[in-house]
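We examine the record.

___
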Amino acid sequence: MSVPFDYPTQDPVDVLNVAPADRPNFRLFAWSLGRYTTYPNVPADRVRLGRAFFLNTAKPLVITQEGATANTAVPFEISLAPGWNLVGVPFNFPLRWLDMKVRDGASVISVQEAIANQAIRNALWTYVSGQYVLATELQPWMGYWVRANRAVTLLIDPAGRSRSAITRSAEPVSTDGWLVQIVANAGSAVDASNYFGVASRAADGFDALFDVERPPLFDGQPMVQVAFEHPEWGAYAGQYAVDVRSRAVGQVWRFTVTTNIANSDVTLRFPNVARVPRGLNLYLVDEATGQRRALRTLAAYTFRSGDGTTTRAFRIEVANEQRTSLRISNVSVLSRGSSRTISFMLNGEAAVSVVVLRNGQPVRELLAQSTRAAGINTVTWDGRDRNGVSLPAGAYTVEIRATSIDGQTARSMVPVVLTR
């Protein structure tokens, strides 16, 4: 959070009207010299223009006294130290991030030029509903993380006023290739601002214009975090939320998923994987189990966290594979008593669904988007419905649907007669 008013001499508990009974447990956090500091230590001891905080409160707080305001005729200056900086919005209206300026030595340049010159890092982070999100606008009353590579001055220019009323999360970089989003969920915690992809101008090491580092974690809150870890990047080593590579064949992205929510399902999703060009197939590999799953047919991947904090390692493998039409062939039914074994052949790996129909209506689902390898596959039906009740004798139809890793589909129907 930040406040678009200045209170240079007043205590934050007075500014925020914290009730006397709640003051012993008042928790306000600021960032200084690479670490969090807590109230009443400097700089968490005053609410100042351009400064942002983390506030932990169980009750709504109301500011009733208006402080001094920033001059809206000139840019407001915020000194950025090398490393991460937690900054606030000094004006009571939204601003476009890319319209801000940076003073680097004697030169005043745009944010985009400052990123290209490696004065500051790419992207702007904020904290919304328990997760870090990438932002394109500076909203009043909110706080933002900005990472500087050297001491510079951020110029919050009121001329960059935005008409938007919300902070938008968008794809963090523009590429001429593709970006795939990773969304992680654990309990109520979400981490959705994670991307990997390729661009023709990207390198396989650190790229100032493409790669986005994660801001510092805020301890003590339920969290899940995806991170592309790059200890080999020297001065730019760290945990990244966005990792863009060259178009070289055989790229592999390694990332970790960490959560402090114990004994919980942790789920990964890749909602926009369909944007990857056909013929280019992506695989998720769980390095703890060795499971390898095709992303195009993977609705979600779930693992279980352990006691305390859990970190799981994964990698994404990319393969250029020859495109062939997906086919289901050699479908047959073998009767043994009241059970029926359905056999079919796939010419490639696919996610398969098998449903028993009567008069066109489903009565039993035998497979639901289950990954099956190329070759002969079988599934057995015991003659019962979804509730385990024996179905009457008569004619039924088994429908087989398959979806390949590059999105192709195939369908086959076979009649089945049930006798009693």
